[in-house]
Design goal:
The chain is α+β, with helices and mostly antiparallel strands. It has two domains: about 130 residues, Nucleotidyltransferase, domain 5 (2-Layer Sandwich); about 120 residues, Pnp Oxidase, Chain A. Helix content is about 25%, strand content about 35%. Strands 7, 8, 9, 10, 11, 12, 13 and 14 form an eight-stranded antiparallel β-sheet that branches. Strands 1, 2, 3, 4, 5 and 6 form a six-stranded mixed β-sheet that branches. β13 and β14 form a beta hairpin. It is elongated. The structure holds flavin mononucleotide. The site of flavin mononucleotide has 13 residues, from β8, β10 and α5.
Length: about 280
């Protein structure tokens, strides 16, 4: 995989549309294998997108960026990390550790220079602000959705996972099997009459452990009750066998979704993969 950083004298260049050099990093297994500074020959933003696409770039790190450029990059399947300042090597290392503090609100308006990039998506000035924010936010939502689907598919693959809750100062663990994505969140299902539900309502901290085919997954976070009928219906539709015991309008069915979750995929052979949702 390759990551390109808008580059000037070792630092992230702050106006994507005027980028004259990119530092391109070759990444393997979350490590930088090599890097080189390449010239863009002073091209405008749509040519820059073509240039990056042609160089097989998966992600771009930059400072300010206009709506037109965001469009061109995302449409080319290139992930955009905007609003970054400082040393380019440090930015790439932070991204690989999932610690890059990027924002979805960055465009040329955030910089104290005159914006003369006429290729930005804007009305008179470089102000496609809401548009850029929405597009970058959507990009993040898609990433989160992909991650959560991967986690949910793993839980479905194992069939049975183990859910730990806190009961005073005593951990409790039991086999569970329900998993469903609804409204962009990962849900599990239980009955309000069960101890597990009572424990979660008293203390939402929970952890799941699942194992299949040499890989194990742990999800640590908080499980929050969602009393919406639609959330329960979605769960029961995903697990129709539950309808023998539960229905969306009984007083017992309870669905909980993960918040502040950290999911870690581990194996004996590979470095752990940590995702948050
Ligand atoms: C394979 C398997 C999957 C299960 N899946 C669920 C589930 O998704 N939700 C649930 O409430 N109970 C499920 N159970 C039943 C719970 O493990 C059982 O009711 C347990 O006693 C609940 O924990 P508690 O006693 O601490 O409330 C499952 C049991 C097995 C054996």
């Amino acid at each position: 995989m390759k990551i390109a950083v808008a580059y000037e004298n070792g630092r992230v260049f702050q106006h994507f549309g005027h980028t004259e050099e990119f530092k391109i990093y070759e990444i393997d297994n979350d490590e930088i294998i090599s890097s080189e500074v390449v010239s863009t020959n002073g091209q405008g933003h749509s040519a820059l997108a073509d240039f990056l696409f042609g160089n097989d770039i998966a992600a771009v790190i930059c400072g300010g960026i206009g709506g037109g450029a965001v469009n061109a990059l995302i449409d080319a399947g290139i992930k955009v990390y905007a609003g970054i300042t400082g040393d380019t090597d440090a930015a790439v290392i932070a991204l690989l550790k999932d610690e890059l503090d990027y924002d979805t609100e960055s465009n040329c308006d955030h910089h104290d220079h005159e914006c003369s990039d006429h290729s930005c998506d804007h009305n008179n000035s470089c102000s496609g602000f809401n548009y850029v924010r929405k597009r970058l936010k959507k990009q993040d939502d898609i990433k989160e959705e992909t991650i959560m689907n991967e986690v949910c598919e793993f839980l479905k693959k194992v069939g049975t996972y183990y859910l730990a809750t806190v009961d005073g100062d005593q951990p409790r663990v039991r086999p569970f099997g329900t998993a469903n994505i609804f409204d962009g969140k990962l849900y599990i299902q239980t009955g309000k009459s069960k101890d597990v539900a009572k424990q979660l309502l008293a203390n939402p901290k929970a952890e799941i452990c699942a194992y299949a085919e040499g890989k194990w997954l742990r999800i640590a976070g908080e499980l929050i009750l969602d009393d919406r009928i639609e959330a329960k219906k979605s769960m029961l539709d995903a697990h129709p066998s539950l309808r023998k015991m539960y229905s969306e309008d009984d007083d017992n069915t309870a669905v909980f979704y993960f918040q502040n979750a950290t999911a870690t995929f581990s194996s004996f052979t590979e470095a752990p993969k940590v995702v948050k949702f």
